[in-house]
Fold:
Amino acid sequence: MEGHFGRVYEHAARVAEALNVQPSTPRVVGRQIHRTNAPADTPEEHYRRNVAVPFINHIHTEIESQFSANVKL
Structure:
């Protein structure tokens, strides 16, 4: 996942640069209720830990539930 996400992030950073937007992380508070709050040092690390990994895990879980042996067609 590291290599693939790195390429996607670099592409997004180039697009952001073309639009004069600096990649940044949202502010982090001590108590988070509605979203994850994994610590990260860089914007790339933040988006990998808090967006990409949970999204891939969700997709993986959904695919497993849709195609498990227990699902009747």
Notes: DSSP finds two helices and no strands in the chain. The longest helix spans residues 43-66. Residues 2-24+32-66 form one domain. Residues 2 and 48 are 8 Å apart (CA to CA).
